[in-house]
Structure formats: C-alpha cells, structure tokens
Automatic annotation (TrEMBL):
<dbReference type="InterPro" id="IPR013413">
    <property type="entry name" value="CRISPR-assoc_prot_NE0113"/>
</dbReference>
<protein>
    <submittedName>
        <fullName>TIGR02584 family CRISPR-associated protein</fullName>
    </submittedName>
</protein>
<feature type="domain" description="CRISPR system ring nuclease SSO2081-like">
    <location>
        <begin position="24"/>
        <end position="239"/>
    </location>
</feature>
<dbReference type="InterPro" id="IPR019092">
    <property type="entry name" value="SSO2081-like_dom"/>
</dbReference>
<dbReference type="Pfam" id="PF09623">
    <property type="entry name" value="Cas_NE0113"/>
</dbReference>
Length: 373
C-alpha cells in the first residue's frame, strides 16, 4: 500500500462504467484511473459492465480477477486507495445472437446485427434507472462495437451521462504489463528488453460530445426489449413531416409511420378532433353547444350502438362536461406520447389555444396532412 493521498469521492450513488473491450482490457483500468485522478469531482464507479465476445472474455478476467486471484482493478484500487466495487458488481456481458448463443467474435453481417441489438439493449437497460450516472468508454473492442455503443448512448443517454475515449501512446497501450500509471516508480520491461517507468506514462481521457435523442423515443423502447434498427427508426421518425391517416373501415390510426392504438372512447374523441381540424374548424371548449352530440355521432359511426355508446350517451345527456372532456383529452395525449415519444407527439396531441379563462383545445396540424378514409 502506498501513501498516495486519495481524492474525495461523491456520496454513495449508482455510478456505472460501461466499456466495450476484447484484446485490450487495459482500457478499463486506464479509464478508471483518469476518472478518479484527473476528474473533479472524482468518479469512481460502483459497478462496471464490459461488453465483449467469447474470445475477449478471458482478457477481461485479467482486470476483474478470477477465483482466488486478484486482478488489475484491485491493484489500481489498492494503489490509489479507491473503494473497489464488490465482485457482484463486476459484470461481463458476452454478446449473443437472437437465440441466446454467445458469439466468438463479430465478423459477419449477422454478427454485426446481433452485436448492434445486444449493445442497444444493454445500454437501454443500464440507463433505465434515471438516478444513476454512467460513463461509457469507446476505447476497446472492434470498431463496429465502439460505434454501436456510442450510437446507443446517443439514443438512450441522459443529461448526466458521459461518452469518453482514453488516449495512451501505442507502445504502452498494447503492452500486456501496463494497465495504468502507478503512483510510484515502477519499471516495465518491453519485449526487446528495454524498459520504461510506468508511473510516467501519460493517460488522457477525452470527452466526446454526443446528441441526446432519448426524449424523442416512445416509452415502449425505453422500458421493453428493443432492437437497434427499431430504435433508430423511432429516432428517425422525428425528422419526417407530420401526417395522420385514419381508416374508419379498419379502425386504424397512423401518426407518421407509427400505428397508435387507443380504446374506443379515446379514439372516437381523437377522430372528432381530427375531423374538425381537417375542416379547418376552430378549436373547441367543453361548453360549446352540440359538442357532446358530435362526439356521440363519431362514436356510433365507428363502434355502432353498443353498450359503450349507451354509457357515453347517459354521461353526456346534458351535453359535454368539463370532467369528461378533460379525461378524454388527457388520456388521448398520454397514449400519443407513449406511442410516439415526447418530442414527436407534440405534432399530434390535443393542445391548448388562447389564454385562461377562455382556453380552447384542438390540433395544431395542417388540414392538408390529415387523411380520413
């Protein structure tokens, strides 16, 4: 143990380091070294996740250690008096295919698709806890793996997350005995029998700016199983012009390229709003004469004279009420946000127009982008 003075660390919270690595596990300890010795405030991860292949798995054990043998991570923590994560917080994620079979390497087109989906799902899961902080390292693994993890962070990253790249001179980066600069003079011998003082090696951590697209993703992609292509398509949808297609025969609603499902009551309410917008009618207020009848007419045309119609007619026997109107509007907008994501849904939600106490409600879509078949 050295007398190196440790840096102060943040209060205990969930701090995640995610790296992709194969034959260069040194990037894990080098990144942690830079995060704790060059960053203010120091960022010591409480858990470490490494994405690799079957061929790369054995290299990661050099850092994490194996049963009865400490790895380079423990040496780093001892040297710099860092709180080493428990073994249960050290995770190796071996890329697997759609059938759950681990991949030896990432070489074929199918391998790349599997790697993209696996990495995307891992990043999605690690960012689900909104109170955590995550640093992603791009320095190890195949180039396609580093591309996918960087792109996945762009899709799912929160404001507090960082994308980094650790820089070390090649002659040290590929040396199997160099994992970080120790605090005291340590001589490392090269293959040609020359040596260098490892404590003098310069390690630089570069922050990589990235665009955060998380707020534009539908909730199903933030919480459920997803693929890389599905997530990219959802992000790409934000760039497409708004359009709505409703088919009364199939009772299907499409906002952009996404089918949006609603129950009979909310769908009827939204179609009523779409029809008004398509006719360039002004926004509405629950006090408008005949609004309840307009809603019932739409409900009947889509669903017939069923029990749902009878219940709605009984509720609206004296016309549209504020409570009924607000509930329908709120539920419609919630379902649009869940299906489309927060940013994309802003084109389609029922929005407020004007100021209180005379606020009215309607769509902001142009009539030309609405198709009612």
């Amino acid at each position: 143990m050295t007398d190196h003075k440790p840096r102060n660390h943040p209060l205990p919270e969930r701090r995640i380091l995610l790296a992709v690595a194969s034959h260069s596990p040194q990037i894990i300890t080098e990144t942690i070294y830079a995060l704790t010795q060059q960053t203010e405030p120091a960022f010591m991860p409480t858990e470490i996740h490494v994405i690799t292949t079957l061929l790369g798995q054995s290299y990661i054990h050099q850092v994490f250690g194996e049963e009865g043998k400490q790895g380079w991570l423990h040496r780093l923590c001892d040297d710099y008096s860092l709180p080493c994560p428990a073994q249960s917080k050290l995770h190796i994620h071996v890329i697997s295919d759609a059938d759950g079979q681990p991949l030896d390497d990432v070489r074929t087109r199918a391998d790349n698709t599997d790697a993209a989906d696996f990495i995307t799902q891992t990043v999605q899961q690690l960012t689900a806890d909104l109170d955590s902080k995550m640093v992603v390292s791009l320095s190890g693994g195949r180039r396609t793996m580093t591309f996918y993890v960087g792109y996945a962070l762009s899709l799912y990253g929160r404001p507090q997350d960082r994308l980094t790249h650790v820089l070390v001179e090649d002659e040290y980066f590929f040396n199997s005995d160099f994992f970080y600069p120790p605090p005291t003079e340590t001589w490392v011998v090269r293959e040609d029998n020359t040596g260098f003082d490892a404590s003098k090696v310069e390690v630089t951590l570069a922050d990589i700016p990235f665009v955060r697209l998380r707020e534009g993703l539908p909730s199903r992609l933030l919480s459920g199983q997803t693929s890389f292509s599905d997530t990219v398509d959802a992000a790409q949808a934000e760039l497409l012009p708004a359009k709505v297609v409703f088919n009364a025969l199939t009772v299907q609603l499409f906002c952009g390229e996404t089918q949006v499902s609603m129950n009979a009551v909310e769908l009827s309410f939204y179609v009523m709003m779409l029809r008004r917008c398509a006719l360039d009618l002004e926004p509405v207020r629950w006090t408008d004469t005949g609004l309840g009848d307009d809603f019932l007419d739409v409900y009947q045309s889509l669903n017939g004279l069923n029990g749902g119609y009878d219940r709605a007619k009984k509720t609206l026997i004296n016309g549209m009420t504020k409570e009924y109107f607000e509930q329908r509007k709120s539920r419609v907008n919630r379902q649009l946000r869940e299906a489309l994501g927060k940013r994309l849904s802003t084109h389609y939600i029922i929005d407020s127009h004007g100021k209180r106490p005379n606020t009215r409600f309607g769509l902001t879509l142009s009539a030309s982008v609405i198709t009612l078949a």
